[in-house]
Amino acid sequence: TAILKGPEDKVNLTCSHTVSSYDTILWYQQSAQNTALKLIGYVRYTSPTVEDSFKGRFDVSGDAAANKMAYLHFPKVPEAEDSAVYFCAASEAQCFTIPSLLYKNPL
């Protein structure tokens, strides 16, 4: 779906899924200048995370598990660099811990 917005318009995108075991919805940006998909952020259950490079420009919210919905908000007026294709993806979260990161190495 193409969305054309004026300089003062608020932008909110919605994503939903129907897979009962999926508990995470991720948002990606693909710009014309750089076709690589850049992770904006994600919602795991109801806990939102925005990547550092997108903080202040985007917010994510929703309930990826129960309501199976997530939202991407542009809290500030979108800038020219925000003109891009936005993707969402749903998944079952794969969480793990790297044991070596749990301990500080003495100097």
Please state the average pLDDT score.
83
Main β-sheet, in a few words? Answer: 4 strands, antiparallel
List the strand order in the largest sheet: 4-3-2-7
Portion in strands: 35-45%
Q: Could you state the order of secondary-structure elements as H and E?
A: EEEEEEE
For the secondary structure, the number of strands is 7
Low-confidence stretches: none
Distance between the termini: 54 Å
The helix content is under 10%
Q: How many helical stretches?
A: 0
Structural class: mainly beta
Gross geometry: globular
Compute the CA-based radius of gyration. Answer: 16 Å
InterPro entries: Ig-like_dom (IPR007110), Ig-like_dom_sf (IPR036179), Ig-like_fold (IPR013783), Ig_V-set (IPR013106), TCR_beta_variable (IPR050413)
Domain Ig-like: 1-91
Organism: Oncorhynchus mykiss (Rainbow trout)
GO biological process, one term: cell surface receptor signaling pathway
Characterise this structure.
There is one protein chain. The radius of gyration is 16 Å and the shape is globular. It has strands at residues 11-16, 24-31, 38-44, 47-50, 59-63, 69-74, 84-91. Strands 4-3-2-7 form a four-stranded antiparallel sheet, with no helix packed on it. Strands 1-6-5 form a three-stranded antiparallel sheet, with no helix packed on it. The mean pLDDT is 83. Strand 2 (24-31) and strand 3 (38-44) form a beta hairpin. It is mostly beta strands. Helices cover 0% and strands 41% of the residues. The chain has no helices and seven strands.
